[in-house]
Task: structure prediction
Amino acid sequence: MPRRPVLTIFYQFNPWQSTIGGIQTIIRYYIKYAPPEFDIRLVGTGTDPKAPTGCWQTRELDGKRLQFMPLFHVADDNVRKIIPTSVRYTLALRGKQLASDFMHFHRLEPSLMTRRWPGDKTLFIHNDIHQQIKSPAGVKNAILWRRFPQAYFALERSLLGQFEQILSCNSDSIAFYRQQYPHWADRIQLVRNTVDNEQFYPLSPADRDRQRQALAHKMGLPSETRFLLFAGRLHPQKDPVLLLQAIAALNHLHAQLPHPHLPHVHLLIAGEGELLSVVKAEIQALGLSKTVSLLGAVPLPELAALHRVSEAVVLTSAYEGLPLVVLEALASGTPVVTTRCGETPRFLTPHSGLICEERTPKAIAAALHQILQEARPFTMQACLEVAKPFQVREVIGQVYARMYDRWAT
Result:
């Protein structure tokens, strides 16, 4: 029986823990939908301080068998530590030899320890790092490298040469890298982020309304309540404080209108992170305790159910790559309200969502008000059409097919 190629994925998380982030979800998809021609390994982190580290374990994830090696234990990956997890992870690779036929990296820093490892290496770029480093002054602590941009660029130049492919989900990032590193331009390619249609799918209008009312009843809210959803890490990049200010502005807008039958609006925040205490304080300061629910880290099946009953998914980010939450919403038939950042404005249509040209509470509130109108132009079918090219089997299947072609030749 011929030997199967081995793919080793490097990232600082435990896929059996409920951690928040698009990168984690993407990695799970690359494991779940790996073709049988590949053996999969994951070098990550653990959560049980009594469990061994630095050795391979045979595990199963979403029905897929894989080899898993935790380098160290992290109690809560949703909260930033004094020493960044990326630094600990990189240092933990020092002196190890974990090379395989294919290696996927989802951060640049760990590849500092792998330059001499043989094998076909791919770097996935999930955000426009250069835009992150130049993020607005008000976005505090968004990324450690923002304090040392020249050091990051020097590290980048020294490490990118080891990668067979550099894949980004963001067109601006692709253009920048090709201009910055023309001698590697043929390695720098656009790759779609993706959505799992087995988990994110629409309901019929009747079922959608029935489940919405059931959720409202469960939460002790009026049956006519309309839900807005934010799903993601409570992090300066996502700017959840701006979202709360927009909800307060929306409430003020509705209070000024003469219409007596405006729907009761409730914001669901599915996520945890370093801004949790700030978010709680802002909710109190704005008087939103009856308008906003903090759900914490929500398992994927429950998150998918929230997508299906929400009027819109809202992003108030300062910068993005291609956020998975957008694709999850659209695949669920739910429109999106977003700031103008990342890849989303390139494919969102007038019938599948709105792009706020200004990152202000007033502009975001106006967009949400438009979404909530009864005579609105947003349709489930328009959302599904936009999401169609991002279906998980097609996107990930193409990546694996190209890998196997390189292996076979």
